[in-house]
Structures
1.
Amino acid sequence: MTSIINVNLPEQSYEIAITSSSYANAPSSLDQLGQQMASLKLGKKVLLVSNPTIFKHFGERAIASLTSAGFEVASCTLPPGERYKTLNSIQKLYDIALENRLERSSTMVALGGGVIGDMTGFAAATWLRGINVVQVPTSLLAMVDSAIGGKTGVNHPHGKNLIGAFHQPRLVLIDPDVLKTLPMREFRAGMAEVIKYGVIWDAELFAQLEASKRLDQLRYVKSDLLYSILTRSCQAKADVVSKDEKEGGLRAILNYGHTIGHAVESLTGYRLVNHGEAVAIGMVAAGQIAVDLGLWQKEDTERQNALIQKTGLPTQLPDGVDIEAIIEALQLDKKVQAGKVRFVLPTEIGVVTVTDEVPSDIIRQVLRGM
Amino acid sequence: MTSIINVNLPEQSYEIAITSSSYANAPSSLDQLGQQMASLKLGKKVLLVSNPTIFKHFGERAIASLTSAGFEVASCTLPPGERYKTLNSIQKLYDIALENRLERSSTMVALGGGVIGDMTGFAAATWLRGINVVQVPTSLLAMVDSAIGGKTGVNHPHGKNLIGAFHQPRLVLIDPDVLKTLPMREFRAGMAEVIKYGVIWDAELFAQLEASKRLDQLRYVKSDLLYSILTRSCQAKADVVSKDEKEGGLRAILNYGHTIGHAVESLTGYRLVNHGEAVAIGMVAAGQIAVDLGLWQKEDTERQNALIQKTGLPTQLPDGVDIEAIIEALQLDKKVQAGKVRFVLPTEIGVVTVTDEVPSDIIRQVLRGM
C-alpha cells in the first residue's frame, strides 16, 4: 500500500510517498528511491548525505536504487547528533559538493533523521543559490515533522535553528520499515510530535492513540496504527504548510510545545534532553498555561499528559534547569515579536489558538509546578 | 528628481528609488532612508552593515535618518574587499544579529558596495530563515547590478559566489551623490556592467555612452549622462529580473562577460583584477567568440571594445594567467550543465543569445589572441 500526500505550494508542489511493504508484496519505499526521483527529471548527479549508523543500515540499498535508475551517486556521512548541526558541518558539505562538481540540476538526498535532513536541506538551499533536495527520513520525528515543509538550518552556539532557510524538497519518501532499527528513545521523541498533531489538528488521531494500550515502544504499536500515525501526521503537516508556507500565520500552530521546548533544549546543551522530550515538556507546560488562563479544560490537559506518559516521555522539567534562565531564553525564540513571546495554546482536543499575551508570572508559576 | 523603478515579482515586489539632489533642492536619497523604510512598515530594529571607509563617509547620515524615522539602530562594519566575502564574515553578522536580538520583522541595511550588499543579503536570507534586507549601494557596480535582483552570497575558497541564496530586498535606495567619494578604479569597474547593459539590452544606452567624449572618470561624465546610466541600467536589470527571478532562462543574459570573467577573477585570487575589470576582459573574449562563430559583426565588437578602452578598462588577459587554467575553471561555473559551459554571445548591439555549444578550441584560440 502506498499513500501519496500532496504538499501544494505556489512555487513548487511535491509529494510525500509512504509505502509499507508490510501491507503488500510491493518493494519497500527505499528501493523505489531511484525510480521515484527519475520520474521528477532531476539532473544526473546525486550526493547522498547520511550519518554512519544509518548509512550502514540503508546506504547501500539507497545507492543501488539510485544507480540502477541511472543516477551518478556520491555519498558522505556526517557525525550524528544535534551538536554537530553547525555551520562547520555545512562547510564540509560545500567542500564535498565542490569536489563532486554538483550542478544546479543536481540533487542532495538526505538519508537520516532530523539533523541530517535539516543540514542537507540547508546545504542544498545555499549551494549555487539552491539545488534540489530529496528527503528520505529514517526517524519517526523526521518522517512526521522535519522532513516536510522546507524548514532547513543549523544551530547557532547560542540558539537552535537560528541560521537557516526555507527550501522545499522535491520529494519526501517514507519507508515505515526502516523504523525497525530506530532506538526506543528516538521512537518516543517522534511520538511527541504525533501527539502534538492530535492536540492541535486531528482529534481522531488523538483518539486512536488513546485507544492503543501501549505506545512506549514500536513493537507494541500495531501496523494499522503505525500507518495511521504516519499518514495522519504527514497529512496534518501538509495541510498546514500548504496554507502557510513561510510561517506568516497558521503555521505557527505547529510550534505547540516548542516555545518552552526550545528553551529547555538550548539550556540543556542539546544533549540531556532530545527534541521530542523537550516538546513533550513544552506541551505539558503550554497545556497548564492554557488551563490557568481559562482557555482549556483541566480534563483535556490530563488526557494529553496521560498520552505523553503512556509514550514514556517526560512531563517534568529536568533537574537543574533554572526557571529564570528559561524565561530569559524565551526572548531568543525566532517567533518573538517586539519582545513578546508567542504561545500556541489548546482550547479543545484538535484546536489551538495563538497568543502573545501570556504574563511572565503565569509562565513562572506553571514551570515551578513542574 | 526621483526615478522609481519597479521590480515586479510574484512573491514580493519592490522599488528602486533614485534621487539626485543635483536636479532638485530635495534632500539627498540617503537622508530619506528612514522615511522610505518607515513607509514599508518594517519592524523597529535595524542593523546597519557597512565597511569602515563607507561608514566614515555616510554612516552617521544613514543612522540619523533611520533614528529620526523611529528605528532602533545598531551598526557594524566588516573589512573591505572580495577576499573577506566569506562564511567567516557571515558568522560575525550572525553573532551581532544575536547580540542585538534581531527579530523576524527586523531589517539589515547594507550600506556599501557589492561585497557588503552580497554578505548582508546572505546573512539576512539565512538569519531566522530570512529577515528583511534593504540595499543602499554606494558603488556604481552595486547600484546598477548587485543591489538589484536578490542574488546574495559569499565565496568558497575555490570559487566565487558558490555559497548563497536568492533573497529579494524590500527596497533599493540609490543616491548618485555618494559616488563622489568612489575611487576611480571602482567607478570604472561599475562602468563595465553599464557597457554590458548597452550590449545585451539597450542600444540607446550604448549610443549615449559612445557619444560621451570621456568615460574614464566620474568627473568627466555629465550629470545628465550619469542619471541616464543609473536609470537605464537599473531598468534593464529590473526588466530581466522581473521576467525571470531565479535564473531559469532570460536572466542568464546578465552573465554576458561573466563566464570567462569569473574564471579570471578566481585565478587571480580576487585581488589583481576586480570584478568589473574581469567582466570587461570577459566581454572582449565573448565578443570575439561571437565573431569567430559568425554570430556577430566584427565592427560591433570593435565598437564594444572601443567603449571598454575609453572607460580605461582592460581588454587583455592579465600577465601570468594560464589559459588551460581558465578552461579548467570554467567547469566550476554555477551555470555549467552536464559539463557544458554556457556562454552569452551578442548578435547585434542590444541583443544576445545563449549557447552551450562553444568548442573549447575556439575559447583557447580567442584567449591566446588576447
2.
Amino acid sequence: MSVVESASPPPRARGLYVPVLTPFLPDLSVDESRFLDHCRWLLDHGADGLAVFGTTSEANSLGIEEKLDLLALLIEAGIPPERLMPGTGTCAIPDTVRLTRAAVSDGCAGVLMLPPFYYKGISDDGLFASIDAVIQGVGDSRLRIYLYHFPHLSQVPIPAAVIGRLIEAHPETVVGLKDSSGNWDNTRALLEHFPGFSVFPGSEAHLLDALRLGAPGCITATGNVNPMGIKAVIDGWKSPEAEALQTRAGQVRALFSDRPLIPALKAVMAMARDAPTWRLPRPPLLAMDETDGAVLAATLRELGVDLNDAVT
Amino acid sequence: MSVVESASPPPRARGLYVPVLTPFLPDLSVDESRFLDHCRWLLDHGADGLAVFGTTSEANSLGIEEKLDLLALLIEAGIPPERLMPGTGTCAIPDTVRLTRAAVSDGCAGVLMLPPFYYKGISDDGLFASIDAVIQGVGDSRLRIYLYHFPHLSQVPIPAAVIGRLIEAHPETVVGLKDSSGNWDNTRALLEHFPGFSVFPGSEAHLLDALRLGAPGCITATGNVNPMGIKAVIDGWKSPEAEALQTRAGQVRALFSDRPLIPALKAVMAMARDAPTWRLPRPPLLAMDETDGAVLAATLRELGVDLNDAVT
C-alpha cells in the first residue's frame, strides 16, 4: 500500500449533509446549471455539506464518467471540497477506486461508500475484503470513508461485526456510517456500540434521539427541500425548543413516507422553481404525476417550508 | 432514434453459450492470457458462443473500462465476434449504452442485458423505459438484446408483461432472454408464451425439457467445465440417448448445487490447469478452500469430465 501524505486529512463531517437531487434536461442528460444552483442553494440554506451521488441523487443511474465530470464541475465552480461527501461505492472495486481517488485528490471531506451490491448473501470476510481492497487501491492517507448501510436497496447489509473489523483495521480511514436501514434500533445500537464513530441517521425521523446519543448530524434525502428545518434540530437539540423543532421536521418528513421519495422530491423542486424538467428522474424511476406534485408542494407550504427563499 | 445500417444484423444465437469465468492474477487484475486461452478452449470444446461478462464472469466486479478493454482484446485476438454475447447491463443507462455500442460495433451476436438493478420494486413502466432508453441510446439496427432475468441476484425480475411489451415495441431487437430464475415453471411459461423468442434456460438442469419446448440452447455457468457434456444434450436431444445425456449433464451440474458456484468453478479450473491463481475471485467473493476444490475436481473426473483434453 502506497500512502500519499501530500495534504492534511479533512476534519470529521458534522451537521446536515444532503444527498443532492440530480436535475435532468428533457433528453435526460444532467442539467449542470440547475445542479450547481441547487448545490449553492442548499449550502446557503442550512446544509453543512453535500452528499452528492447518493441514492437520492440517482447516482447509480449516472455513468462513471458522468460522476467524474460532475465532481470536477463542482470543484471548478468553487463549491468548497471540504463540504463534499460524494457517493463512490459501485459494484466493482476498480470503478469505486477510480471515483474515490478523484474525491480524495479533490480534497473532499470524505466519501459515502456502498458495498459492492450485485452479489447477494456475501460473507463478512468477503464484505471486509471488498472495503479493504478499495482502501488499499486508493492508497491515500487522506481518505475518509463513511460506510453506506442501505439494506433495502443494496440488499447487502453491513453488519456490526464487519464495521468493527474495518474500524480496527483502518481506524483513521473508516470513520463513520450512514444508516439508511430505517430501523431506529439499528441506528441506536451502532451509536451505543461504536462511540467516536460518526453514525449519521439516514433520515431526520429520529434525529433528536440520535443527536442525544452522540450522532454528528444526519444525511437525509428530505434535506433537499427542508434543509433549514432539519438544520434547526441539529443546532437546537439542547435548547428548550428541541422537541418542537423535531416535531416540525418530522411532519415534513412524514409527507414523503408513503410517496415514491425521489420523484416526490423532484416534483416539489419543479413546483418551487417553476421548472417542469426538475420533475424528471432517469429510468427505472418515473416522474410523479403533476397533480400529486402540486398537492405535495402546497402541503409543504402549509407546513411553513418555503423553497423560494433566496433562490440563488 | 438514429439507426445505423452499416452492416447486416447477426443471426439468432443458438446452442451452448458459456458465461466465461474471468481469471485473475495475484494482484486481482485480469489474467488476459488465461482468459483468452479459456475462451479458445471453450470454443474448441463444445461452446457455440461466449457470454463473456456474465454473472459467472464476475462482470459486475469488473470496471467499465476493463470490460471495454477485454472485449477489444478478444476481437483483436481473433475470437469471432459472431460467437460473442457480452453482458452489458449495468445500473446506469449511459454505461450500458457505452458497453452495448462497443459490442454492436464489434459485430457481436448480441448482448445479454441485466436491467438496472440498484433501485428495487420498480414499476413495469420504469423497467420498460429503461430497456427502451438503452435501445434508443445505442441507435443501431444491428443490436440484438437477450434480456437477463436473474431475480435472485438482480432483485429486479423481468415480468412476462414487460417482455411482451418490449417484443412488441422492438421485435427485431429484443429477441431473447436468459432465464436464471432457477424456476423451471417460469422457463416453461416463457417458452410457451413467446414462441419464436429465444428463451435460454440459465442452467442445464432442465435442458432437455426446454429443447423439446423450442429453446435454442442454454447459457450456463457449468459450461465452463463441462461444455462437451452440455453440448451433447443440445446436439442429441432428438436421439435415443437424449435422456441419458441429460442425466449425465445433470449429474455434473448437481455437484455445484450446494457449493458457491463461481469459487467452485474456479477451483476446478485451478486443479485442471495446475494454476493456483485460477482459484481467485474478486471480493466480495472469496476463493474456495483448496481441499474442497480438489475433492470437487476428483469427483468431476469420476463422472468422466476431463478438462485436460486438448488444452490450447
